[in-house]
Specification:
alpha+beta; 6 strands; metal-binding
């Protein structure tokens, strides 16, 4: 796969687990942050995009990233803590999400409202272990 010359390349990724943000630095000097939730609900996977009919992903407010693996020099495979790991996030996908995130987020919230769905997790994910 070749990189579109008009899309900047990612030169650094920093996962901020506590704030659930992925910081991306591009070779054009821009730095952007995307929430793990945004990345999960806009995953470029077939599971999310369906066959031209995108699935509304719900209950991902507290989602986090558990692994980021490089794919060649054009993308990363992100594994989320809910087990989802089938989307390849190319530099173009990441740049498009980052530079259009306000509009995309509003569209996502509107879809949630229309479906009477929620961002809130179904089960509280705070797990405590006792010795």
């Amino acid at each position: 796969m070749t990189q579109d010359n008009s899309t900047p390349n990612v030169i650094a990724l920093k996962l901020k687990r506590k704030s659930r943000q992925l910081e991306m630095t591009f070779d054009n000097g821009e730095t952007h942050q995307l929430s793990c939730e945004m990345l999960r609900v806009y995953s470029p996977s077939a599971e999310v995009h369906g066959h031209g009919n995108p699935v509304l992903v719900t209950h991902k407010k507290n989602i986090n990233i558990s692994a980021i693996d490089p794919v060649g020099n054009y993308a990363v495979k992100i594994t989320f803590d809910d087990g989802h790991n089938t989307g390849l996030f190319s530099w173009k996908v990441l740049y498009d999400l980052a530079t259009h995130q306000l509009d995309l987020w509003e569209k996502y919230l509107a879809r949630l409202r229309a479906a009477k769905a929620s961002r809130e997790p179904l089960i509280d994910m705070a797990v405590k272990y006792h010795k």
